[in-house]
Amino acid sequence: MAFDLSSIKLARRDRPLRILLLGTPKVGKSTVAAQIPGVAFLPIKGEEGIDALDVQTFPIAETFSDVLEAVGALCNKNDYKTLVIDSVSKLEGLIWKECCRINGGVDSIEKVGGGFAKGYIECFKQWNELLEGLDYIRNSMGIGCVLVGHIKVENFHDPSMEPYDRYNIDLQKKAGENLIRWVDGILFMKKKVAVKKDDVGFGEKTARGIDTGNNLSYLYTQERPAHPGGGRGIWGQLPYEVAGNWPAFQEALNKAQTTK
Q1: What confidence tens digit (pLDDT) does each residue in 115-130 have?
Q2: Residue 177 in contact with residue 171, Cβ under 8 Å?
Q3: What are the boundaries of each domain within the chain?
Q4: Are 82 and 16 in contact (CB under 8 A)?
Q5: Contact 51, 41 (CB under 8 A)
Q6: What is the pLDDT of residues 87-102, one digit of tens each?
Q7: What's the chain's average pLDDT?
Q8: Does domain 14-259 fall into CATH 3.40.50?
Q9: Closest by alpha carbon to 43, among 58, 25, 26?
């Protein structure tokens, strides 16, 4: 490729979004993803979130090769607009098994490369192979992706203040960081909880969470100390809180794009 002044062009392009959808257990992540028009699901072994959903789906992926085959199938002419992988938390287990298989058939990711966490680094080959495939169907076929993920609560060490607990993606740390950098935006989903303080005597109070009564889930588009969120470009124009369904999020997205 020749690099000269004629090769310079406008960088802005409108492409299908790559979204990471995280949320607390049983909050309705798969239900929201199933509302996306033109969606094809790729369920990972161990997930049952789509059993009750009327949605187009690949067979359950039981190996990492199954996952790559499904992505490859979308390279052929089709009418799908979004691939949903449900979930990347379960997918990580398939990646570990594949990494173990191609590194001498060891029985644990901790043993790959002789240990000392080398296995987690080796797994980046599989993660990057998948992300390259997803980028290919995005650029060549116009198919975006939604990666559903579970969360865990862990202690976060902020250099500017005291450590505190927050929700984070339930993946090995470096794999999670890599995925968060790759996606265009992160949606965090949860139900609202009110906090009630009870007087237990001697000037002491205890706090407990209570149901707000509406039993509704919400999508949060921006990062807060308690949870991840946010993204590139149009993401900064979205409201912080959106009703927990895809049409509501799409409406907010359309409004932000029109305003911009």
Answers
A1: 788 999 999 999 999 9
A2: no
A3: 14-259
A4: yes
A5: no
A6: 999 999 999 999 999 9
A7: 89
A8: yes
A9: 58
